[in-house]
Structures are given as structure tokens and as C-alpha cells.
Design goal:
- Residues 24-61 have a biased composition (Low complexity).
- Keywords: Signal.
- InterPro entries: DUF8017 (IPR058330).
- This is DUF8017 domain-containing protein.
- By secondary structure, the chain is mainly beta.
- The chain is 8% helix and 35% strand.
- It is globular.
Length: 251
């Protein structure tokens, strides 16, 4: 049986921090999306020291580099004093009421963890390397579809909240002349829960970079229409920061 390190409600799905890419059992998960949370801060998960992306504390005020533990890629997030928490070697994902992992991401970072006074562990946004359940490299659009289906799943485990048509665009990254394909959609939340600070809408954006024969996809899940929403310009800077890390072999 897989061990759940921590479980928190982020956006509307049952969101879990997992070890070794295993899905939690139903008894170990929060169950239905939007239900009560047995949440804990991300720092209670597996040791961050095992991740190459969390080896050293960055200088005060500098953006933090989060390196993939399995791919020669990295991304940047703002400094800890700006509300960002490094997830270390965690695998984060959304699970259904039976504990089945619907979408997973590695080496995550979280924005405004614990910002909700009555929902300890709730994060207003988070980002990580999207992991394909089949091991096949997915396009930005395919990854966005998988995450949208996971995040939008309702408490009945069968129906989904509506989400907008996928919009894809090509953007220039901060890594030389490299470009990324970004795909976004917005989920309209029907099962609001003020006590757990569930937002009215949740935005999902994936960004895929292909360079030197390798591919990496970053996914960001962001609460919308909330007072402490992650600003658009910071979101864009984080997604543009996805880059290869020369000299770091893929594991």
C-alpha cells in the first residue's frame, strides 16, 4: 500500500503529496474533491535534500532554481519571502475518491501555502514537472487535458465541472532562442467551499519545451478570483523560465 506523506485541498480536487509516484489508497486520501482536508504543509513530505533542485538556500530576494530530479531541465520561482515554498523531491498529484492518481507532477513549488486560516495547507498556486502516467512524452495540449480532467472532477467521482476550450500559443522562453508551447484552460468551480477557501475558478497552464532531443512539460495550477491570487506577470515569468540544464544527464 502506498504511503501518503500529506494530503491537502488545492483548488477543487483531492490533492496529495505522494512518495515514489504511488497513488494513495482511498483510506489515506481525503476522498471526494472539495471534502474535508487532513492537510499538512509541503515541508512534511519526503526529504528535500534528495532533490537536485533543492540543494542550497538561495540568497535573499533571488529567484529559486528548481531542478528536475529526472530530466536535465529546471525552472525558477520567486524567493521564499515572496510566498514560495520548495517541495523538494515530492510527487504531487490529484487523486479520485478511490485514491487513484489522475495527474501527477514532480519537483513542485507552492505559492501561499497556508494562506487560508481555516484550511491549513491550501496553496493559491503551485507548479511542477508534469509526469505522464504512461511514460510517453505528452504535448502541452494533451497534458493540459489530463490536468483539466483531474482538477474538474466533482465529489461524485463521475461528473466534471466545465472548463473553457484549450488555448495554445507559442512563446519565447528565457533560455536563448528556445520557444515553448503553452496551453491554458479555466475550470469554473460548482462545488464552492468557503471554509476550505475553494476559489470560484481555477486556471491550468502547461508549458512544453523541446530542445536537444529532450522534452519537458511544466504545469501550473492557479486559483483565480481570490484576493491573494498569483499575479499574471509572475505566472508568465515562471512558465518562461523552463530551460534545459546543460551537463546534467537525464536519469
Amino acid at each position: 500500500m502506498a504511503a501518503v506523506v500529506a494530503v491537502m485541498v488545492v483548488a477543487i480536487g483531492a490533492f496529495a503529496l505522494l512518495r515514489d509516484d504511488d497513488a494513495p489508497s482511498a483510506a489515506e486520501s481525503t476522498g471526494a474533491p472539495g471534502g474535508s482536508s487532513t492537510s499538512a504543509s509541503p515541508s512534511s513530505a519526503s526529504s528535500a535534500s534528495s532533490s537536485p533542485g533543492s540543494s542550497a538556500t538561495p540568497a535573499e530576494g533571488r529567484w529559486q532554481t528548481i531542478a528536475s530530479s529526472s530530466l536535465p531541465f529546471a525552472y525558477l520561482v520567486p524567493a521564499a519571502r515572496e510566498g514560495w515554498t520548495r517541495g523538494g523531491a515530492e510527487t504531487a498529484g490529484y487523486v479520485d475518491a478511490h485514491g487513484k492518481a489522475l495527474a501527477k507532477a514532480q519537483d513542485p513549488a507552492y505559492f501561499k501555502v497556508g494562506s487560508c486560516a481555516s484550511g491549513k495547507g491550501v496553496a493559491r498556486a503551485w507548479v511542477g514537472f508534469s509526469a505522464s502516467p504512461t511514460g510517453v512524452v505528452e504535448t502541452s495540449r494533451a497534458a493540459a487535458a489530463a490536468w483539466a480532467n483531474a482538477v474538474s472532477l466533482r465529489a461524485d467521482g463521475k461528473t466534471h465541472d466545465t472548463f473553457t476550450p484549450f488555448v495554445s500559443r507559442t512563446v519565447k522562453t528565457d533560455s536563448g532562442d528556445a520557444t515553448a508551447t503553452q496551453t491554458s484552460t479555466v475550470v469554473s468551480v460548482s462545488e464552492l467551499n468557503a471554509e476550505l477557501c475553494i476559489p470560484p475558478r481555477v486556471e491550468i497552464t502547461t508549458s512544453t519545451v523541446k530542445q536537444d532531443g529532450l522534452t519537458a512539460t511544466l504545469v501550473m495550477v492557479r486559483d483565480l478570483d481570490v484576493a491573494d491570487q498569483l499575479p499574471d506577470d509572475i505566472k508568465d515569468r515562471i512558465l518562461r523560465s523552463l530551460r534545459p540544464t546543460p551537463g546534467v544527464p537525464a536519469s
